[in-house]
Amino acid sequence: MNPRFSRSLLLLFWILLWARPSLAQLPLDSLLLVRGFCIGSPQADGVADFVKFIDNELAPRQVNTLILRIDYNYQYESHPELRDEGALSKADVKKMVEACKRHGIRLIPQINLLGHQSWASKVTNLLRVYPQFDETPAVQMPAHYEWPNEDGLYCKSYCPLHPDVHDVVFALVDEITEAFETDAFHAGMDEVFYLGEDQCPRCSGRDKAELFAGEVTRIRNHLAMTGKELWMWGDRLIDGKTTGLGIWEASFNNTHRAIDLIPKDVVICDWHYERPDPTAAYFAMKGFRVITCPWRNPDVALVQVDDMLRFRAAATDEMKDRFYGMMQTVWSGADDFLDGFYGRKKSKEADTQTAWNTFRTMYTKINALDKGK
Fold first, then answer.
1. Which of 187, 210, 166 is nearest to 266 (CA)?
2. Are 44 and 314 in contact (CB under 8 A)?
3. Using alpha carbons only, what angle is made at residue 144 by residues 141 and 147, rounded to the nearest 5 degrees?
4. H-only helix segments in 35-77
5. Which part of the chain is the Glycoside hydrolase family 20 catalytic domain (predicted)?
6. Half-sphere exposure of 338 (CA within 13 A, CB side)
7. What is the pLDDT, as a whole number, of residue 161?
8. Can you list the domains of the chain with their CATH numbers?
9. How far apart are CA 106 and CA 291, in angstroms?
10. Is residue 191 flagged as an active site residue?
11. Do 110 and 71 meet the contact criterion of CB atoms below 8 Å apart?
12. What pLDDT is stored for residue 345 in this prediction?
């Protein structure tokens, strides 16, 4: 085992063993700096409904950060060929911007960069319009997708070394961050299975950790030129084999070593959905601000809130503010979530195992912590 990783694990165990929360009379802003909510953006005809949700549900629960997964659901002017059909207009976006301003909610857009350039049997807009950016052009999309498969296909990636790819994606990033009047951008970058592939004439033979770190750093540096932060998912920075976390929540292709190669001002969104694995302590020890992210298991979310509070209470002055907070994630569009949240359609899942029940449960706990009211 890598000795640096062993030392990190020892410190993690110390935190878990000895951490004791000291929460008496602390206002909520001192306990959880980020109280977040991440969801797919609404369709144009659902914007008014979503604005009501911001006003009536997010703001009263003291949510202070909203990440909207936009991808191509915006009427881009720099690259109109990449727009989704019926995409959000600038006027639609401004309605959500104004709602967030009313309540002091930081609004951060997301476009999936590097990975998640396809889903199931469908190539998404970037590689559909610019197939030359594909890291694995020889891998054909199946008529009926199944996992596992011979190609190891989960989602396609763009080639981070293609000489033209950043001209396109950075134009989108600049346009969407301007439209959202934001000082941060979420680049996704989770579940990257295709990287440094042998058949790629640019990436073949290169270190996958260096390729991943290079792309993170390039995106971060582009944003930093205009004073913006990079946010990203953290799974590719965890060793899936050593930790036993597996191929989805962590890396099996050695990108985890990039954690020591990327700038420390990147904000890490650390997701674990079925177990409350305490990897927030690992990211914080590596120097990053980290946000723990549940999804649809309310019991897991409650443990994760307790862990975040405990880590923060026990941390040194240098470490404390790296334990940045909590963020509910929703892996559907806003329209579907609101249907479930307001009971407008029946869920196929157990009533408790839903993103909307987890959201209610987690924020009931978080709001009960507020001693500053």
1. 187
2. no
3. 85
4. 47-53
5. 81-294
6. 19
7. 98
8. 36-367 (3.20.20.80)
9. 15
10. yes
11. yes
12. 81
**210-225: b or e for each residue (b if 16 or more CB lie within 10 Å)?**
ebbbbbbbebbebbee
List the beta bridge partners of residue 292.
Answer: 270, 326
Least Cα distance to 307 among 92, 11, 15, 1 occurs for 15
Answer yes or no: are the C-beta atoms of 161 and 212 closer than 8 Å. no
What is the rounded CA–CA span in Å between residue 323 and residue 311? 7
Residues 6+ apart with CB under 8 A from 210: 258, 261
Q: Is the peptide bond before 148 cis (omega within 30 degrees of 0)?
A: yes
Query: C-alpha angle 248/250/253, rounded to 5°?
Result: 95
Dist. CA 239–CA 38, nearest whole Å? 25
How much is the mean pLDDT over the chain? Answer: 94
Beta strand pairing call for 122-123 and 118-119 = antiparallel
- Which of 175, 191, 215, 249 is flagged as catalytic? 191
**Lookup: tokens for 284:** 């914080």
Residue 147 DSSP class? S
User: Which residue do the tokens 């790629």 mark?
Assistant: 200
In this structure, how many other beta carbons lie within 10 angstroms of the beta carbon of residue 147?
A: 8
Please give the DSSP secondary-structure letter assigned to residue 75: -
How far is the C-alpha of 217 from the C-alpha of 232, rounded, in Å? Answer: 12
The answer for residues whose C-beta is within 8 angstroms of residue 318's C-beta and 6 or more apart is none
Please tell me the predicted confidence (pLDDT) of residue 347. Answer: 64
pTM, rounded to two decimals: 0.93
Whether pLDDT at 21 is above 60:
no
- List b or e across 357-369, with b for residues whose CB sees 16 or more CB atoms inside 10 angstroms: bbbbbbbebbeeb
Confidence bin at 97 (pLDDT 50/70/90): very high
